[in-house]
Design a protein that fits this description.
Layout (H helix, E strand, L loop, with lengths): L16 E4 L2 H20 L4 E3 L2 E3 L11 H17 L7 E11 L5 E4 L6 E8 L6 E5 L22 E5 L4 E6 L4 E3 L8 E10 L2 H4 L9
Antiparallel strand pairs: 1-9, 2-3, 3-4, 4-11, 5-10, 6-9, 6-11, 7-8, 7-10
Amino acid sequence: MPPTSPEVVRLFPTFVWQSQLEPACYEPLNRDLLAYVERIMGEGRGTGAGVAWQSGYALHREPELAALVNHIEAAVSDVLAFIKVVDAPFRITGCWANALGPGAAHPMHSHPNNFLSGVYYVQTQEGADTINFHDPRPQAAVIRPPVTALMAYNTDQVVITVRDGALLIFPAWLPHSVSVNASDRLRVSVSFNVMFASYDTTMSSPLWGEG
């Protein structure tokens, strides 16, 4: 008898959670967020490098972000429930706005010392509506033979298309980047990090027994 096809066993999956707010929810939310971002940019707050701008990292404490923070916290709670994390308080450790003008990009990076990271999309358009996630395993790049077609089992990058009102959450260690803004408008998003509130006192005990 001919051998049967090998069964594929997936090990250690990496999840990106994507939710989409309804237009009745995100349209007024994004209108207010965009006005707020444009105001603080006009006031000279934040930092800029060429056509890229980034706010300070404490926007979650601002009243203008209160509605978005509620959506973020609800989504994080769903993620923690999905991965069966014990009921543990968490907090947003950083939240900032990003504005990439035409021709701007954001290089590959990750967010150390946090458990989850995420991004909410305020203004996107064709040519400025993707985020790239990169293979976090350095060993996987040691040998890369040519392939006849890209697929989930041989690619080192996954590109996710987003739109206004999209909310992504992913492991903070997962490398990601943003390609060049090929549109003629600003690409505006709000990024955030999340960590357990009392990790050092309630969740840092070893997962193994004493010898």
